[in-house]
Amino acid sequence: MNRATIPVISGVLFGAGVCVSGMVRPSKVLGFLDLGGSWDATLVFVMASALVLHALAWRLVKKLTGPRFGTAFPPPASSKIEAKLVAGAALFGVGWGISGYCPGPAVVSVLSGSTASFVFVATMLAGMLAFDRTNADG
Q1: In 3-state terms, what secondary structure has residue 118?
Q2: What does the longest C-alpha to C-alpha distance in the chain come to?
Q3: CB atoms inside a 10 Å sphere around CB 108
Q4: Domain coverage including residue 75
Q5: CB of 18 within 8 A of CB of 104?
Q6: pLDDT, tens digit, for every residue of 73-92?
Q7: What average pLDDT does range 89-116 have in this prediction?
Q8: Sequential DSSP letters for 46-95
Q9: Phi and psi dihedrals of 22, rounded to 5?
């Protein structure tokens, strides 16, 4: 099996999931965040179903001695909470709340030809590049 097969299948499933759930439409996400107006609870069901699937998958993975498609499981993530982590989470939340786009669904929505999705993805890539450059300098 080619090394890219699993990531491609995962990406296609993710893209199909966000399209079917409507999460590529910013109006859907902004409707969820609008607690004072006509609140749309759809995102709760999307997140809950993802959480249930993850919990089931995690139970299966915990029983394995090693990964099925790889050499080793990644080490545990750091449990240290730093200012960079909090600032990044806040920036993510503000961006999501203002635009209605989350990075993954925004990339998928580029296929729709929406100008807003192109602008979001371009600025997201610029931010990632700026982060890499400032991190490389120390």
Answers
A1: helix
A2: 50
A3: 20
A4: 5-136
A5: yes
A6: 888 888 899 998 899 899 88
A7: 87
A8: HHHHHHHHHHHHHHHHHT-SS-TTSSSPPPPPP----HHHHHHHHHHHHH
A9: 85, 10
32 contacts: CB under 8 Å, gap ≥ 6 = 39, 40, 41, 42, 43, 44
pTM of the model: 0.68
CA distance 119 to 108: 13
Amino acid at 15: G
Return the SS3 of 102.
coil
Alpha-carbon torsion, ordered 102, 105, 108, 111, to 10 deg: -70
Amino acid, single-letter form, for residue 13: L
85 by Cβ neighbours in 10 Å (0-12 / 13-18 / 19+) ranks as exposed
Helix 26-33 to helix 83-99 angle (10° resolution) is 110
The number of domains in the chain is 1
Token pair 């999705």 is at which residue?
117
Q: Which amino acid is at 74?
A: P
